[in-house]
RNA sequence: GCCAAGGUGGCAGAGUCCGGCCGAACGCAGCGGCCUGCAGAGCCGCCCAUCGCCGGUUCAAAUCCGGCCCUUGGCUCCA
């Protein structure tokens, strides 16, 4: 069964054919570290993580690169804020370490490299020089712009049309730029994005004297790299001229990704990325979650409040390409889904421990469910990473396990073992959920203490002292220990 | 204005590429039953869908074609 993906470039679903199946080149557009990461960022991370995991699961070798943009005016602008450091570099460093912490917390597979803009300025300058030499870029007042009219394919990703853009703002001889759609590859010292935007709109002069952070020497004088060029430079450096999958949020299609294509393909003459996958945006109350709108929920806050598994389950209940709404209700539902899976997994592994490997019981229905789950999960994932349907398959397995346990007094060892393995493989390795992972720490001691309390409670129950028994249960509950009485005695989880 | 994505039950959200298995998945909420000292979990069953609107193609459309309405995103920093 082969994987097919929806390619933004063509707008169609295509069969996935990487340059080298043993070395699939995956580039994820990372974030600008000017603030704490929020749940919208984590959505891209989680979906690209699951893509990575699925490719690896299916036998592909994956080389995953994810950049950090640590040179940006918004970062520089925060220098001097309490607790953030006095320079652009320090501020970036600060946020970068918290982002890395978030990524760990989300249980993301590590990328091969996390390149930073500040460490790739020479490569960026080289790339710009190549573009200038080839006639795709020109210098103007110490800044360098990409000439969109020189690149016939400009607009192929976003279906934008240069002529229409031109109609909106006539090019002016006074302008630093030849065409309104031209974009900065290199910004002369003192030139800010804000000034550039104004310039683009009504031709106001581009220089202002505010301090916009560090500057670097270049053939065009001191300055800073433009926004889009970094991704081209870093991905070419680490993944070569043609990469297989480029992932990013939908809001980056234009202009960012369009410009990346223009720069990279103009410079190398090769196709930049084979497949462009764009993730839908996370919304709250009908608008996208974003740093600039200030309506965001931080990753660390969410991890603390809901836990990794619930956060991941939340993301996995919608396809990567669809937009998704964040709300307390949605998180509550994700929690129910995750717990349903987790409980079924625990039920299966507990019963497995108590049944003989050579048990004679065979439950064809259970075994069929396991087989069907694997088949359906694989089908769904290969169908443009349809995680929602893959998740549904896992939930069917949960129901299958519960049915088996409900209907039998003796259990099917092999069937249960296969179910447990399936949860660990598909739910654990592919979805990155914590099946079968003990929380660590003093767990064993805590477990023993709870067992002790439950033993006491059992004797109260046997004696008919239900009030006393319920009180013990309530008090455990208050500590976060959930107690359930079953045919085989009480079980607990926390 | 231009470009893109989307409008499916109380909520959420698959299915739309490749029309029939969709009388519409999975889940949450709600209702009934079983189980239980009780509770929870679980199991069984039920409830709620003119698949945005109008028209067309077809033996057959949520799925294809055309028009319209609405929402979100992009066109400025943005995952």
Automatic annotation (TrEMBL):
<dbReference type="InterPro" id="IPR014729">
    <property type="entry name" value="Rossmann-like_a/b/a_fold"/>
</dbReference>
<dbReference type="GO" id="GO:0008270">
    <property type="term" value="F:zinc ion binding"/>
</dbReference>
<feature type="domain" description="Cysteinyl-tRNA synthetase class Ia DALR">
    <location>
        <begin position="376"/>
        <end position="443"/>
    </location>
</feature>
<protein>
    <recommendedName>
        <fullName>Cysteine--tRNA ligase</fullName>
        <ecNumber>6.1.1.16</ecNumber>
    </recommendedName>
</protein>
<feature type="binding site">
    <location>
        <position position="260"/>
    </location>
    <ligand>
        <name>Zn(2+)</name>
    </ligand>
</feature>
<dbReference type="GO" id="GO:0004817">
    <property type="term" value="F:cysteine-tRNA ligase activity"/>
</dbReference>
<feature type="coiled-coil region">
    <location>
        <begin position="331"/>
        <end position="358"/>
    </location>
</feature>
<feature type="short sequence motif" description="'HIGH' region">
    <location>
        <begin position="31"/>
        <end position="41"/>
    </location>
</feature>
<dbReference type="GO" id="GO:0006423">
    <property type="term" value="P:cysteinyl-tRNA aminoacylation"/>
</dbReference>
<dbReference type="GO" id="GO:0005524">
    <property type="term" value="F:ATP binding"/>
</dbReference>
<keyword id="KW-0067">ATP-binding</keyword>
<dbReference type="InterPro" id="IPR009080">
    <property type="entry name" value="tRNAsynth_Ia_anticodon-bd"/>
</dbReference>
<feature type="binding site">
    <location>
        <position position="29"/>
    </location>
    <ligand>
        <name>Zn(2+)</name>
    </ligand>
</feature>
<dbReference type="InterPro" id="IPR032678">
    <property type="entry name" value="tRNA-synt_1_cat_dom"/>
</dbReference>
<feature type="short sequence motif" description="'KMSKS' region">
    <location>
        <begin position="288"/>
        <end position="292"/>
    </location>
</feature>
<feature type="region of interest" description="Disordered">
    <location>
        <begin position="198"/>
        <end position="221"/>
    </location>
</feature>
<keyword id="KW-0175">Coiled coil</keyword>
<keyword id="KW-0648">Protein biosynthesis</keyword>
<keyword id="KW-0547">Nucleotide-binding</keyword>
<keyword id="KW-0479">Metal-binding</keyword>
<dbReference type="Pfam" id="PF01406">
    <property type="entry name" value="tRNA-synt_1e"/>
</dbReference>
<dbReference type="InterPro" id="IPR015803">
    <property type="entry name" value="Cys-tRNA-ligase"/>
</dbReference>
<comment type="similarity">
    <text>Belongs to the class-I aminoacyl-tRNA synthetase family.</text>
</comment>
<keyword id="KW-0030">Aminoacyl-tRNA synthetase</keyword>
<feature type="binding site">
    <location>
        <position position="231"/>
    </location>
    <ligand>
        <name>Zn(2+)</name>
    </ligand>
</feature>
<feature type="binding site">
    <location>
        <position position="291"/>
    </location>
    <ligand>
        <name>ATP</name>
    </ligand>
</feature>
<feature type="binding site">
    <location>
        <position position="256"/>
    </location>
    <ligand>
        <name>Zn(2+)</name>
    </ligand>
</feature>
<dbReference type="InterPro" id="IPR024909">
    <property type="entry name" value="Cys-tRNA/MSH_ligase"/>
</dbReference>
<dbReference type="GO" id="GO:0005737">
    <property type="term" value="C:cytoplasm"/>
</dbReference>
<keyword id="KW-0963">Cytoplasm</keyword>
<keyword id="KW-0862">Zinc</keyword>
<keyword id="KW-0436">Ligase</keyword>
<dbReference type="InterPro" id="IPR015273">
    <property type="entry name" value="Cys-tRNA-synt_Ia_DALR"/>
</dbReference>
<dbReference type="Pfam" id="PF09190">
    <property type="entry name" value="DALR_2"/>
</dbReference>
């Amino acid at each position: 069964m082969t994987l097919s993906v929806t390619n933004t470039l063509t707008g169609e679903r295509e069969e996935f054919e990487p340059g080298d199946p043993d070395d699939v080149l995956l580039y994820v557009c990372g974030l600008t570290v000017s603030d704490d990461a929020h749940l919208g960022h984590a959505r891209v991370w989680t979906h690209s993580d699951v893509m990575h995991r699925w490719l690896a699961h299916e036998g592909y070798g994956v080389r995953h690169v994810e950049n950090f943009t640590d040179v940006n005016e918004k970062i520089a602008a925060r220098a001097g804020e309490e607790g953030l450091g006095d320079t652009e570099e320090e501020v970036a460093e600060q946020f970068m370490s918290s982002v890395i912490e978030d990524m760990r917390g989300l249980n993301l597979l590590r990328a091969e490299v996390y390149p930073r803009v500040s460490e790739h300025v020479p490569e960026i300058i080289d790339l710009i020089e190549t573009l200038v030499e080839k006639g795709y870029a020109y210098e103007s007042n110490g800044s360098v712009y990409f000439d969109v009219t020189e690149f016939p394919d400009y607009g192929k990703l976003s279906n934008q049309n240069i002529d229409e853009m031109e109609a909106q703002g006539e090019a002016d001889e006074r302008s630093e730029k030849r065409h309104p759609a031209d974009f900065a590859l290199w910004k002369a010292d003192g030139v800010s994005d804000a000034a550039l935007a104004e310039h683009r709109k009504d031709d106001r002069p581009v220089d202002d004297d505010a301090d916009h952070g560090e500057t670097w020497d270049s053939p065009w004088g001191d300055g800073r790299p433009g926004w889009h060029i970094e991704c081209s430079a870093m991905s070419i450096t680490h993944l070569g001229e043609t990469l297989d999958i480029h992932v990013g949020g939908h809001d980056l299609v234009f202009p960012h990704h369009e410009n990346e294509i223009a720069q990279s393909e103009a410079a190398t003459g090769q196709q930049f990325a084979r497949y462009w996958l764009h993730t839908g945006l996370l919304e709250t109350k009908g608008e996208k979650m974003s740093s600039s709108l200030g309506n965001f929920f931080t990753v660390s806050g969410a991890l603390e409040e809901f836990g990794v598994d619930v956060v991941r389950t939340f993301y996995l209940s919608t396809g990567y390409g669809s937009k998704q709404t964040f709300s307390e209700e949605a998180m509550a539902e994700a929690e129910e889904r995750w717990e349903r899976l987790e409980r079924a997994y625990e039920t299966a592994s507990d019963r497995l421990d108590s049944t003989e490997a050579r048990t004679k019981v065979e439950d064809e229905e259970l075994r069929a469910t396991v087989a069907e789950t694997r088949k359906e999960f694989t089908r769904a994932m290969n169908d443009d990473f349809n995680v929602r349907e893959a998740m549904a398959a896992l939930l069917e397995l949960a129901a299958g396990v519960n049915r088996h346990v409900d209907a039998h007094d003796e259990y099917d060892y092999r069937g249960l073992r296969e179910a447990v393995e399936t949860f660990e493989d598909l739910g654990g390795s592919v979805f990155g959920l914590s099946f079968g992972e003990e929380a660590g720490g003093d767990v064993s001691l805590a477990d023993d203490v709870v067992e002790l309390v439950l033993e006491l409670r059992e004797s109260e129950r046997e004696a008919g002292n239900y009030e006393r028994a319920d009180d013990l249960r309530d008090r455990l509950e208050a500590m976060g220990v959930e107690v359930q009485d079953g045919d085989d005695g009480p079980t607990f989880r926390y």
